[in-house]
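Colleagues,

Please find the record for the two-part complex below.
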Amino acid sequence: MPEMLLHPWPWYVAGPLIGLFAPLLLWLGNRLFGVSSNLRHLCSAIAPRGIPYLSYDWRREGGWNLAFVAGIVVGGLLAGLVFGNPEPVAVAASTRASLASLGVHDLTGLVPRELFAWSSLATARGWIVIVGGGFLVGFGTAYAGGCTSGHGISGVANLEKPSFIALGGFFAGGLLGTFVLLPLVLGLR
Amino acid sequence: MTTPVESRVDVELDDDDVHELSAEQVRDPTAPGLWIYLLVGTLFGIVLTKGEAISWFRIQEMFRFQGFHMFGIFATALPTAIVGVQLLKQRWRRTLSGETVVIPPKHLGSGVRYAAGGTIFGLGWALTGACPGPLFALLGSGVTTMAVAIVSAMLGTWTYGRLRHRLPH
């Protein structure tokens, strides 16, 4: 297998490519690039329970996007599993030091292995990171009406003020999570 | 029972919903089928993964301002997206099947939903190291506990739907 396929891509290759998806989906069929809507479509499909926010024709509104997100899973499988980078991620030395002080030493793979192992769900820290973190992502993106793709890329590309506000919120929350919440949580057993 | 004030808010929100989803109302039957979106999604998943935008470690590096990688991604993705979308909207104006390009505007309201919702999402992003796209890409890459995170995220979205009429927007 050619070594090249295993290498991660630099930002100047990945960035412009990521930026192409908003215009591409718009051109293909007036679709608005945004992944978090799929959480809503899935809820609508599984348990609408008479909630107005979830009561709509999810096949019609979200069928294309659910196909898109199924593709993301396939893409992750190809690029992360079949052609995954065997080397530890090349983050800054200062990040390695910061993470080591939080007890994260293994930088191979895409996530800290121990923290995201199934056995981790039996610990408070693993439960808060995986279940709590997931809940915050789902609640927050629904409340904000979009995530990094819908607001951060699509909304900003359409020069919309709400998306710039949301992007500010993403970062404010991220900083709070990184410097306050994460050290507390990773300190738990 | 809802008071008249609450129901007015509801109507506004529902209008907004219709806007969010309105591009679907005038779908051309010759528009591309689902398989093309599966393919485009696969390409997106590959780019996210190979670009390490789904790496928990890269997200930490970004929020700690210790490396340029993620900022470089945003700094090149945004101009590309802006130029592409603006060209499509203002110059070419047509989709593949000849429809007029329509981008339903987002409703600003008080702006609270964007600031508060954005911050809540940001907290979750720092913990899981993943926004919604990466949650799915990570699942594909073999981080199987992300299935739990995705179900939990669905529960979060469902809870928002349930509490929606009581939240400031």
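Residues 1-16 of chain B have pLDDT under 50 and may be disordered.

Comments are welcome before we finalize the supplementary table.
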